[in-house]
Every structure is written in C-alpha cells, then in structure tokens.
C-alpha cells in the first residue's frame, strides 16, 4: 500500500521578514484547498521544526495547529536539519500505513536571518556545529567549496561547468511563480559574481530564504472517496550513514575514512529509496536534488545514478538535465532559484514532483512525467530521498 | 593557551593532532572519541594517539568574507584559508598558515603547525613542509 498525495501548497519563497507560522498557514490552506478538504477534516498534523525561531519553532506541529485554530487533531513535531520535511512526511506516512489515521497534514516553514547560517546562540564547546565556526571559521559554503574543488581535481570540472548549473536552474526558476529568483542569468554573470569560498562564487551558492510548504497525505481508500488524479509516495528514505561514513560531512572537522563518493551518504540515501520503490534511475522522469551549490548538483546527478562517476558535467552539457531534456534535474529551479528554507524545502520538492506528475507544472512541465525523485542532505547525518509516482 | 583541550598539543615546537585508537578494533578517530565509533565494536575506552604530522592535501578553500561568531575575525579581515588533509586514513580540516589558495594544489604535502586565532588562543594549522 502506498499513501496518496491528496493536496500540496506553497507560500512563495523570498525574504519577507514575517513570522514563519504565517508562511506555514498560507501553505497549509493552499494544500487543503488543493485537496478539497477543510482544516477540520485533518486527523493528524506533523510540523517540521525551525531551530532559529524560538520555542514556537521547536513545536512547529502545535504552532501551525494553533494558528489554523485548534481542531483536536493528534500532532507531532520533528527536526532533522535539511531532511526535516521528509521526516515529518515519513511520520505521517507511517501513521497512515499503520491504520491510525486516514488523512494527515504535513507543514514546514522558516524565517531566516540575513547572511551565513551560524550556530544557535551561546558558548557550546561540546557542539560540533559551534566548534567548526569557533576553531576554523568553516561556514556551510566552505564545505561546499571543498567538495567543488574535489570535482575539479578529480574529474577536471571547471568553474564554467558550475556556472552552467546556475544558468540551467535560473532558466527553470524564471518559469516558477513560487521561486524567489526569477531572472535568467548568463555564465558570465556567475563567473564575475564575488568569490565567497574559492572556487565558489556568490551565484554558485544557494541563499537562505523564507518560505512555507505543506502536503496533505491520505490512505488510498480515503483518496478514492475524494477523486482526483493520484500521485502516490513510492518510497521515503531517511537512513543514516553507515560506518565509516565516506564523506567529509557538515559540520564535522574530520571524516571517519578517506571520502569515497561511490560509498557516500547521498548515494546510500537514494539507493534505499530506489530499493523501496523497486525502480532504478533509468525509470525517473525528473529529479529534484539539493543544490546547495552548483557543483553539488553535479555530485547528486552521479549519486542518483543518472550518469557514471565524474561525468555529470558532460551530462549537463548534453542538455539531458535541462527542461526539455530527457531527464530534467531541478525543473522547479532548485535551491538556486528558491534559496533554502530548511524545514520547508523537502516538502517543496514534493510539491514540485506532485505538480509535474499531475501534468500541472505549466511553463516548466516535464513531458509525460511518471516517476520523480526528491533528495536532500543536511547536518549531523540527516538526509532524505522521496520517490513519487502516478 | 590552546583553543581546545585534548585535540592537539605542542611539544618542542612541533604540533601534534591527538586522535583516539580503539583498543579492540583499532579504529582511529579525530577528534578523540569517548567510545569506539564502529557499530559492531563494544569498544573499550579508546587510547589517545598522536596522528601523523604530515598529510596529503585532499581539498582546500578560503573564506572571502568574515565567518560569523563564534569565529573571531581579524580586523582588518584577511581571508582565512582552509585545508582538508588526508592522513592516517582520515581527512582532517584546519586553517592554513602563511599560504593562500593560489599556493595550494590537491595532492601536495602539508605539515602540521600552529598559530593564533584572532583573539589569541592557539589552534593547529596546516603549513608548507619545513
């Protein structure tokens, strides 16, 4: 049995400066309207937490439920870094599959500060996230840059290859009314934007954004009573890395072994999803991957098995991963066009898969989309891979 | 004063990273772990071990803008160079002393040294081999 995505909704990404719950409520109302349900129909609510917005952010499920008006539903909240939305989804899915409820609402929303993400306040010398800033000044883009430099050394990728990812994703984002950045860009613009963490420039690195996303999930029986073209969840993978973790992973100061991407965490996350769904990469119509940097999208293409190791730049140049190509990657515009609203991002990816699989993605529609993959990776061994299908 | 206790030491002018080595399965970790990280190892208390003082540059970058607190950025700010260096089967990050990204290439040998954070305490750093 697979759970059904009955409704999806987004609050547009941006830097709006409003409380996060406002974005979550807007997204929830949009998802409920899309599902043809009323808020009082919802039996279970899961909130994906935000850690930069105080107590209401740590109890996001309750915060959204109160904002929508207490309706007596059961609630849960969870935090899993960039995979928070996917884990919230998985909790709701498990509840439905267990027969404990028929219909659930999953919501994630964030309000982000300007500039680099930094550790939450206070002196915490036992916290690796605090220590990497204190001892090394190692921001998130520093890690993305280390990975990008590896691609250059190992595969011969160039900054122009990385820029081409941004050009591709900006072109898709320009067609997405929910994206924060909606202007097309040129390779030259990317290559002349300020250097942030060599070899990555400002336009290679995703911004931090405000945004909200929501999904209504239900059992197949419930979905039959409510009609509509059905998108189902074929897999949700939230596995941890396995020892020794073959990545130099945020926010760690050392790896557990010499990194090997073929045995890396992102590869394992996606492999687990393929296994659960019983499909392989060749069956994908599209993929939404976590392009925290342009270079990282190339890593993801290889981790997802869309091409052999080291050939993602070639795959990009072939046009296969662009809109209109054989297997578009980040047809939403990706993080390059959205920026990152952490607890909302995995849910926003699922919204995009749903619109694509329904055939309602408008100017960025992927032809005959049948199966989509959405993947994230975050701090402290968190990540996700979701497969949705018609 | 060291910026963190138990992760490195300076002896006779030489800097050493301090890892841990599991007495049961031999797993080496940096920073030192209170118990073994191998999921199949019950792990007696790992013993401290000095790691190799030289390694191979795995990757590198810099911070063109001042990192946020709790990092203490120098004023005026000069970009911090970061290196990820392969040694003893691990890759260990560190600031780079007296070299910029223009001086670095993946695969070169770097040697451990130390230097001050902008607010004073000493931290291990990677530098050119002496």
From TrEMBL, chain A:
<dbReference type="Pfam" id="PF22691">
    <property type="entry name" value="Thiolase_C_1"/>
</dbReference>
<dbReference type="Pfam" id="PF00108">
    <property type="entry name" value="Thiolase_N"/>
</dbReference>
<dbReference type="InterPro" id="IPR055140">
    <property type="entry name" value="Thiolase_C_2"/>
</dbReference>
<protein>
    <submittedName>
        <fullName>Lipid-transfer protein</fullName>
    </submittedName>
</protein>
<dbReference type="InterPro" id="IPR016039">
    <property type="entry name" value="Thiolase-like"/>
</dbReference>
<dbReference type="GO" id="GO:0016747">
    <property type="term" value="F:acyltransferase activity, transferring groups other than amino-acyl groups"/>
</dbReference>
<dbReference type="InterPro" id="IPR002155">
    <property type="entry name" value="Thiolase"/>
</dbReference>
<feature type="domain" description="Thiolase N-terminal">
    <location>
        <begin position="22"/>
        <end position="219"/>
    </location>
</feature>
<dbReference type="InterPro" id="IPR020616">
    <property type="entry name" value="Thiolase_N"/>
</dbReference>
<feature type="domain" description="Thiolase C-terminal">
    <location>
        <begin position="271"/>
        <end position="384"/>
    </location>
</feature>
Automatic annotation (TrEMBL), chain B:
<dbReference type="InterPro" id="IPR002878">
    <property type="entry name" value="ChsH2_C"/>
</dbReference>
<dbReference type="InterPro" id="IPR052513">
    <property type="entry name" value="Thioester_dehydratase-like"/>
</dbReference>
<feature type="domain" description="ChsH2 rubredoxin-like zinc ribbon">
    <location>
        <begin position="16"/>
        <end position="43"/>
    </location>
</feature>
<dbReference type="InterPro" id="IPR012340">
    <property type="entry name" value="NA-bd_OB-fold"/>
</dbReference>
<dbReference type="Pfam" id="PF01796">
    <property type="entry name" value="OB_ChsH2_C"/>
</dbReference>
<protein>
    <recommendedName>
        <fullName>Benzoylsuccinyl-CoA thiolase</fullName>
    </recommendedName>
</protein>
<feature type="domain" description="ChsH2 C-terminal OB-fold">
    <location>
        <begin position="49"/>
        <end position="112"/>
    </location>
</feature>
<dbReference type="Pfam" id="PF12172">
    <property type="entry name" value="zf-ChsH2"/>
</dbReference>
<dbReference type="InterPro" id="IPR022002">
    <property type="entry name" value="ChsH2_Znr"/>
</dbReference>
């Amino acid at each position: 049995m697979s759970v059904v995505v009955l409704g999806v909704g987004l609050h547009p990404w941006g830097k709006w400066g409003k409380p996060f719950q406002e974005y979550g409520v807007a997204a929830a109302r949009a998802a409920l309207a899309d599902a043809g349900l009323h808020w009082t129909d919802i039996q279970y609510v899961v909130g994906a937490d935000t850690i930069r917005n105080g107590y209401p952010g740590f109890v996001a499920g309750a915060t959204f439920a109160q904002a929508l008006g207490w309706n007596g539903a059961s609630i849960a909240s969870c935090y899993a870094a960039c995979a928070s939305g996917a884990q919230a989804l998985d909790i709701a899915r498990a509840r439905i599959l267990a027969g404990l409820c028929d219909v659930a609402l999953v919501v994630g929303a964030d309000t982000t500060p300007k500039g680099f993400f930094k550790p939450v306040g206070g002196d915490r010398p036992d916290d690796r996230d605090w220590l990497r800033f204190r001892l090394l000044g190692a921001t998130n883009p520093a890690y993305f840059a280390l990975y990008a430099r590896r691609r250059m050394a190992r595969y011969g990728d160039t900054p122009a290859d990385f820029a081409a990812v941004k050009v591709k994703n900006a072109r898709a984002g320009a067609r997405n009314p929910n994206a924060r950045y909606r202007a097309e860009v040129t390779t030259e613009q990317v290559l002349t934007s300020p250097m942030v963490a060599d070899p990555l420039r400002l336009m290679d690195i995703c911004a931090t954004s405000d945004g909200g996303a929501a999904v209504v999930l239900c059992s197949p029986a419930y979905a039959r009573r409510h009609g509509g073209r059905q998108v189902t969840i074929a897999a949700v993978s939230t596995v941890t890395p396995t020892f020794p973790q073959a990545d130099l992973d945020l926010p760690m100061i050392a790896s557990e072994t010499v990194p090997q991407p073929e045995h890396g965490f992102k590869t394992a996350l996606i492999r687990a999803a393929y296994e659960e769904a019983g499909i392989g990469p060749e069956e994908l119509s599209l993929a939404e991957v976590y392009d925290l940097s342009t270079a990282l999208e190339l890593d993801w293409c290889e981790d997802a098995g869309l091409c052999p190791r080291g050939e993602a730049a070639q795959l990009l140049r072939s046009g296969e991963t662009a809109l209109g190509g054989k297997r578009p990657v980040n047809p939403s515009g990706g993080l390059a066009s959205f920026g990152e609203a952490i607890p909302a991002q995995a849910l926003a990816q699922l919204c995009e898969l749903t619109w694509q699989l329904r055939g309602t993605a408008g100017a960025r529609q992927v032809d005959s989309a049948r199966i989509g993959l959405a993947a994230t990776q975050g701090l402290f061994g968190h990540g996700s891979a979701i497969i949705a299908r018609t | 004063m060291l910026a963190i206790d138990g992760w490195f030491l300076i002896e006779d002018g030489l800097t050493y990273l301090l890892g841990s080595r599991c007495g049961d399965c031999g797993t080496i970790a940096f920073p030192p772990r209170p118990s073994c990280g191998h999921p199949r190892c019950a792990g007696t208390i790992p013993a401290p071990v000095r790691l190799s003082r030289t390694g191979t540059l795995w990757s590198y970058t810099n911070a063109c803008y001042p990192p946020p607190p709790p990092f203490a950025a120098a004023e005026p700010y000069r970009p911090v160079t970061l290196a990820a260096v392969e040694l003893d089967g691990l890759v260990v990050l560190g600031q780079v002393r007296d070299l910029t990204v223009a001086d670095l290439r993946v695969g070169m040998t770097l040697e451990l040294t130390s230097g001050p954070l902008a607010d004073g305490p000493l931290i291990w750093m990677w530098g050119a081999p002496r």
